[in-house]
Amino acid sequence: MSNSIVQAATDNAPIVTAEKLCRYYQSADTTVKALDGVSLSFPRGRMIAIKGSSGSGKTTLLNLIGAFDKPSSGSITVDGVDVAHMHGGSEVKYRLNKVGFVFQSYYLIPNMTALENVMLPMELSGLGAKKREARARELLEKVGIDKTREARKPAKLSGGEQQRVAIARALANDPPILLADEPTGNLDSKTGRRIVDLLGTLTREGKTVIIATHSTEVAAAADITVDMLDGGIQGQSQNN
Asked: Which of 14, 27, 48, 143 could serve as a FRET partner for 195 with CA atoms 20 to 30 Å apart?
């Protein structure tokens, strides 16, 4: 398949497909099998929870979908793109336009305001300043950050507010896929539920949301749960 990210899969095609996907790491004299022969197919427009304990392979799978890592062998196709064989500018363009990442630790830039953090990915994609600002304000309002908070830097926001800003930033370039790695891990249970509700709303609006989590509660809120253990898939269930 071509490395071009211009052509997307059809609406009926799975948004993520992997065949015999492996990611091995060498640690001293030991080969660590972070992913070991994973095959899967994810439909578009759904919330998918990849559930497992630390070391199960869920974050490695998320990183491969997001093109932050390369498989040792096997294939992975995301929205019509052969992710395993992208290089250089194609990878950068893919990460800017195809996937948005939300992390457990937020990773907001501390010396930028909430508004500036959301504007940044659009600057990298070449959108004009006025359009960047207008869209950033629209997205912050969408995730529940009002105008009194958009000028605050991350240290002046609560954990839940920082995660909302991070979600708005992930949506900046309107990617079809949102990848979330333990997005409620640093939040209290009430705030965590609100973040999961927000991700569910984005799914109903057409985004595909893929969450790596160890939380049974988060997994229960997803449409599909994939259980992972020791680099392999133990099972998959339809929740709704």
From this structure: 14
